[in-house]
Amino acid sequence: MDSKRIVFFIVVLSLMLQPALRAETEDDDLLFGVFGDTRVAYQGAPIPVAFRRILTEINLINPDLVVHTGDLVYGYGDSEKQLKVEYSSIGKLMSSVVPKIYFVPGNHDFQTPLTTRYFKEMTGQKEAYFSFDYKDVTFIILNTDAPGRVGEIDGEQLKWLENELEMKKDSRAVFVFMHRPLFSFLIPDADQKGDLAEPMYNFVSEKARWSVIDLLTRYKVTAVFAGHEHLYYRTDYEGIPFITLGGGGATFSVPPDKGGFFNYMIVSIKDKEVEFDLMEPYHFSVETRTYQKDGKTYGEALVHNIHGEVFEGVIPLHGIKFTLPKGNYTVKGESVVSPRQMVKAGESLGIVEKSAEEAKEKEIQALIAENLKPSIHKIEPNKEDNEMVDVWVGVDAPGTFSVRLRVIPEP
User: Fold this and answer.
1) What pTM was estimated for this model as a whole?
2) Residues 173, 222: contact at Cβ < 8 Å?
């Protein structure tokens, strides 16, 4: 193998493992993203456009960290040359991702000793299963696809998992990630405890599957995430959400009404409260510009959130960046809506009741502006121009209207 090429790949993908730029919050609120199954459809196929779009939106949201649930590359039958090409393309694409990314090994990534070696080298992850903590929240990455042990979490790995769960049982929350889902949408019979006559699609046996489920439920983990099936699916068992997020760009397993749509998830933790927001890419946009006024440079962003039925809440966008002259700045946010939309917008934010339809427009507008929570998260030197700085701003963008942010130079 060409050692120079290997070093190049590792450098490219190691950029994905740098700390996020978003400022730490004093109250330990945590935001993380989850998505997976972003592989190409077949050998030589282009990187899925949806994968590119999800990365763009992840940057705009700028969570504290991101977990990829597996299947980065096609893998099956790939030669070493083909693997180099795939990982080179993926590395270049993902090198611009701001949050740190952790990777779950998928069956396409770990299919052979060659693909396994490349996955470890290119992601910088020496271990196939591991855990880490962030803001007193535990993240556990498992491997369902070790060569020769496909569809199993047993033996040494199962003992390790039990030990981790015991040690981290007092964490604020415990999230578990694996590639193959423990509860399958494609094989509903797998939701029934007991041995099946035919081999499992995801796990080698019901015994292997339930040994993991029983352990996770015994320790009451917060949620379990998987991929593998190219769809969105959630089922709750013993009060624990088991969520499949396999809509990162690979061809769908089912029609849209069965969960076959591109997807990712943003999970927020405030104290011990956890919210799961299912996201569909291409449902919000951010347009930015800079302009001159009275000899000063201003920044402006127009945020459109149109998630509709898939997402009706608030998208916390923390990664909107402006490159501006050195100095101090403030940021203001305002809604861009017609008068008849104001009450609906206020309802979306939970600050106006339906009975307030006769309230004054300016009062509702002021309430909306206050609840957008516009903020500057970080100002840092621009790497290309010593006279410029990069200003990172954020806003809570409701799904019912557009928002305008203005970055204003201080006197």
Assistant:
1) 0.86
2) yes
